[in-house]
Amino acid sequence: MKLTTIAVLGGGPGGLYAARLLKLSHPDAEVTVYEQGEADKTFGFGVGLASRTQRNLREADEASLTAIVDAAHPHEMSMRVGDDAVRLAHGELLGIGRATLLTVLQRFAQEAGVVMRFGERRSAADLDADLIVAADGISSATRSEHEAEFGPSVVFGDGLYLWAGTDYQLPAAVFTPVTTEYGTFVAHAYPYAEDRSTFLIETDEETWKRAGFDVTTEQTPNTENDEVSLTFLEEAFRESLDGHHLIGNRTKWTRFRTVRCANWHAGNIVLLGDSAHTAHYSIGSGTKLAMEDAIALDRALLAADDLESALTAYEEERRPAVHYLQTIAERSMAWWDDFPERTSIPVAQLLIAYVTRAGKVSLERFAATAPQVVPAGLAAYAGVTVDEVPGPAEVTEWVLAQPLSARSLPTRTAPAELRDAPGTVEISTQVRPWSAEATALVEGLSAAETYWLVGADDREAVLDRLDLAERIRRSTPAVVVAEVPAALRDVAAAALVSERVDLVAIGS
Ligand SMILES: Cc1cc2nc3c(=O)[nH]c(=O)nc-3n(C[C@H](O)[C@H](O)[C@H](O)COP(=O)(O)OP(=O)(O)OC[C@H]3O[C@@H](n4cnc5c(N)ncnc54)[C@H](O)[C@@H]3O)c2cc1C
């Protein structure tokens, strides 16, 4: 379809990439990006780009992707708990400074003929254009100004995070907890330049309050750093920082906001990227989602005859992918919120729990790609030597076949008679595992010897059941059994290794 004027609100990765693609597809149109900030000033440190993002971006626009990859920093992944550490070679992880990414995207937008208007904050109502792309980020004013049309919901996470950096290149991405007198803080850190790494630190609300950071957060203006927290954390993470400093950039404690919207378009305004949806940072996909939205919007506008059909098609195309990643992100956020309770698990086993936490990566697939970690994790789970662990294709059955010594049971598949045993209580529920309802259920449990969890057989319901099983397992000394359909045996095996459940009852 023909467009004469396109206004893009917001010069983040979503807005800049959309502007370039749209200008290339509509060379006669006037495409303008309005960005409230200056060209070379931005918030944040590095962001991670996963491999799939790169394939999608390459198909859409090879030139900009090549420049992004050239400016990015490949790295490996590691996990460290105390002195116990594992490192995972992972050829496809990339980190890139947010400022660097934006510089590359600004250049490509300008080369395509996009007009950049920096230092100009605008609202959709100020703009007169055939199409207004509202890529104005997580706090989108466009979304709020048109609340009735977009139907947004914003859910705040339980935990708090602080996005900082450090002035040296970490040898690999590292996930590591530190326990202090106030409680546990967990760092997610990765290198993104020769002299910079992202150092994101999270904690739970009680620890945050005990450390007095509720007060320092309150006292820190949005334009400044919470220096008290940064000084404390620099000391707490001294070993991981190898004597380097933590640096802030408007850094203060925040709760992650998960944004969802009932509609992503209204009239000639379309939401794109974080303005429409967010996914917890622990799956490193926000930039990917914003840029993939841009690709879908561009394609929908080329294919349709009128704006309404194009924007409807864009939304229909993107909703399933966004929903899928938001579901994974929700599980990932909950996993990290509870992370301090898992630090007694041997670290190779913990890394398996991390990679399989949201049901996206199967145990077999991880075993095939990480021979330096998975056998050690499985050996720790079974209490055997690494030589006794089979190859990737056999790991699922092998995990299920291990004994539960504490109950003198020969395998991890629950015997049918256990279900009717006098000490067994059946729990049949569909509650979301992190809901207040689930908390009430866990807190109200009587002292049974065994809890046997049943419910629906679809994948999401089974993953929910296993997450609830883990909560019950952590709060009671009982043996916890979850029913899992035969088609999800691999999910059952991953849950056993991750210590989310003691036994599984495999259905038909
Ligand atoms: C702590 C943290 C860590 C993250 N780590 C990762 C990661 O590792 N990998 C990853 O892929 N993603 C990560 N993300 C997410 C990622 O930063 C965002 O998803 C991504 O930047 C979204 O792009 P966007 O273009 O939609 O919005 P933004 O990048 O937020 O850009 C919006 C732009 O709009 C401008 N703006 C807003 N309102 C107006 C207005 N009215 N007029 C003019 N300009 C306006 C803003 O100044 C801003 O430049 C992380 C996010 C957080 C919070």
What does this entry show, briefly?
The protein has 508 residues and is of the alpha/beta class. The protein has 19 helices and 22 strands. It starts with a strand and ends with a strand.
Would you spell out the secondary-structure blueprint of this structure?
Elements lengths: L4 E5 L3 H13 L4 E6 L10 E4 L1 H10 L1 H10 L1 E2 L2 E5 L2 E5 L5 E4 H15 L2 E4 L12 E4 L6 H5 L1 H4 L1 E5 L3 E7 L6 E7 L4 E10 L2 E8 L1 H6 L2 H7 L7 H10 L1 H4 L4 E2 L9 E5 L3 E2 L2 E3 L14 H18 L3 H31 L9 H9 L7 H7 L4 H9 L12 H6 L23 E5 L7 H8 L6 E5 L4 H17 L3 E6 L4 H9 L5 E4 L2
Parallel strand pairs: 1-2, 1-9, 2-8, 5-12, 9-18, 19-20, 20-21, 21-22
Antiparallel strand pairs: 3-7, 4-7, 5-6, 10-16, 11-14, 11-15, 12-13, 13-14, 17-18
This protein binds flavin-adenine dinucleotide.
According to CATH, the fold-level topology of the largest domain is FAD/NAD(P)-binding domain
Secondary structural class: alpha/beta
The CATH first-level class of the largest domain comes to: Alpha Beta
- Total number of helical segments? 19
CATH homolog superfamily of the largest domain: FAD/NAD(P)-binding domain
| Bound molecule types | flavin-adenine dinucleotide
Total beta strands:
22
**Which outline best applies?**
globular
For the largest beta-sheet, the strand count, sense and barrel status come to:
7 strands, mixed
**Regions with pLDDT < 50 over 5+ consecutive residues?**
none
